[in-house]
Amino acid sequence: MLILSIETSCDETAVAVTRDGREILADSIFSQVDLHAVYGGVVPELASRAHVEVISKLADDALNRAEVTKADIEAVAVTNTPGLIGALLVGVNFAKGVAMALDLPLVPVHHIRGHIAANYLAYPELEPPFTCLVVSGGHSLIIDVRGYTDMSIIGSTRDDAAGECFDKIARVLGLGYPGGAKIDKLSQGGDDTAYKFPRSVIADSPYDMSFSGLKTAVLNTVNNARQSGTPIDEQGLAASFCAAVSDTLVGRTIDAAVKSGYGKLVVAGGVAANSRIRRDFEAQTAAHGLKLYVPPLKLCGDNAAMIGSQGYYEFLAGTRADLSLNAFPTSSV
Asked: 2-116+300-316 in CATH: which number?
């Protein structure tokens, strides 16, 4: 089954063609990083306008690269939640137009489910059930994935997402936006014990997380050093920060995966590209006899192929939308 899928939840415009939820025929992506870098973060109105400017061309490009025609497409899948509402509406309205014009089924897809499905594209053998950690710029979630469309959140951040902290700390260090890859690169070779940063503990909910205290501790360390004229070991600071994030994520997720009894742990989302987090998960899953699945770097960030993959399984489950489909900035997975 060929699905044309659309992703515009934040600052990446993406259109893909996938087959049977497991094969990428084309994944065309337009990055807005340069547009937002000058502001140190995503400007929602600018993101929405940029989506409008390129989405039609990207759709044509995806079809051409996949070497298929509009007549070959059997369904249209689109991210309709969660995300920036203006950005989401661009994709949803474009998808509705395509579905109406080609008389095709319209399949709404939850963005977080899409991140999970990125692993189906990377690992043809992967099937539910499994435990999944989704970590991105706006989300930090531990999810019990019982089936392709049957899942529930068992742990989440109480405040900031891990990816948001990477961006804010990169900004205070003058590294620019986006911060994840820049912090990761800076941390290489750094002493991860150079600075003592907190690890959150939520007494009444062991799988929940908090990153606001960690973010504040790092920002205060930098600001206090600058005010007193004390040199900052930026490599050590970045390494210590990455270690604190990893410790917060890995222990909880491993415990949830072990207790689930599934024997499989999946990690997804943009922060899953962090080398320290990947390395710690590899070590801990090996130590606990778990099979680890982490997507390649190109599938960690936002893309439309993951929406096409999840869209396929939503389609098989009977999920459909009519032309009244709306976008929502937040919703449960």
From this structure: 3.30.420.40
Rounded percentage of the chain residues whose pLDDT exceeds 70:
100
Rounded to an integer, what distance in angstroms lies between the CA atom of residue 62 and that of residue 136? 25
- 138-166 mean pLDDT: 94
Structure tokens at 74: 């059997």
Q: For the chain, what are the domain ranges?
A: 2-116+300-316, 128-295
- pTM, to two decimals: 0.94
Confidence of residue 321 (pLDDT cuts 50, 70, 90): very high
Residue 137 has pLDDT above 80, yes or no: no
Given this chain, do its domains 2-116+300-316 and 128-295 carry the same CATH topology? yes
- Please, which residues bridge with residue 106 across strands? 76, 321
Q: Which CATH architecture has domain 128-295?
A: 2-Layer Sandwich (3.30)
Asked if the peptide bond before residue 108 counts as cis, ω within 30 degrees of 0, the response is: no
Q: How far apart (Å, rounded) are the C-alpha atoms in residues 177 and 39?
A: 8
Secondary structure of residue 75 in the 3-state scheme: strand
